[in-house]
Design goal:
239 residues, alpha/beta, four-stranded antiparallel β-sheet, 7 helices, globular, binds zinc ion
């Protein structure tokens, strides 16, 4: 079996992983590349969309009540701008390290921002709540497009997006759901502005975590996570 990242065919280990989030127990073959160390599903199932039902977390965003919404916005505001004593207190209790890292990028409020694998807008909504005005999302597994004044979330993969000049393109735990990483990151590079930035958050397989949990590692998330990098395999990608 050939590694989709480095092309290695020798001594790749095949193992089985079960779908656990929705308790179906459906079983999938994965391989661990003996060269670059990445994990990848052997065959992406034709019905992959069935494993993103309406109650999948990023597709099922319930609106919090007024008080909870206020607390979340304060926490997020601290994560972005490192201001507000109340926000700092809440952040210390319930941190969101990705938002904090995104805040450190210091995006302009008029920056053109794309969230790849946005679901129905978990991250886009948070960024909009902080005052950002030009927000885009793409996700092939949502029910339909979501369009409002500051937001356009389109039901399509990034490779079909006919829009460019983005200042920031964010893969917030979405890259591991995509099979062809090189094609997707190259597309992101093509539609990025000249001084734009790509931000990637994703699980990374280490020997320590893999030896400890193996096929029970929560980040395997079969079959939704189709490819999980090691540091070596991400370096190998060569983009
Ligand atoms: Zn490999």
């Amino acid at each position: 079996m050939i590694c989709k990242i480095c092309g290695n065919t020798k001594d790749n280990k095949v193992f089985k992983a079960k779908e656990m989030m929705f308790g179906t127990g459906d079983c999938f073959d994965y391989i661990e590349c003996s060269n670059c160390g990445c994990l990848q599903i052997s065959q992406v199932p034709d019905n992959l969309g069935d494993y993103y039902p309406k109650n999948y977390s990023s597709h099922n965003l319930s609106k919090p009540n007024f008080i909870k919404g206020y607390i979340i916005r304060k926490r997020d505001s601290y994560a972005f701008f490192k201001k507000s004593i109340l926000g700092k207190y809440i952040y210390q209790k319930r941190p969101n390290e990705f938002l904090s890292a995104l805040g450190d990028v210091h995006m302009d409020f008029n920056s053109k921002i794309l969230d790849v694998g946005s679901g129905t807008g978990y991250l886009v909504n948070k960024v909009e709540n902080q005052g950002y005005k030009n927000l885009w999302g793409v996700d092939p597994f949502i029910e339909s497009n979501i369009i409002r004044e500051n937001v356009k979330i389109l039901k399509k993969p990034i490779k079909e997006l006919d829009e460019d000049n983005f200042d920031y393109i964010i893969f917030n735990h979405s890259l591991e759901h995509i099979e062809d990483h090189l094609e997707n990151i190259r597309k992101a590079s093509q539609i990025l502005s000249n001084d734009g930035t790509i931000v990637i958050a994703m699980p990374v397989k280490s020997d320590y975590i893999w030896n400890l949990y193996h096929e029970n590692w929560v980040q395997l998330d079969a079959p939704r996570h189709v490819l999980i990098h090691s540091l070596k395999s991400f370096d190998t990608l060569g983009w």
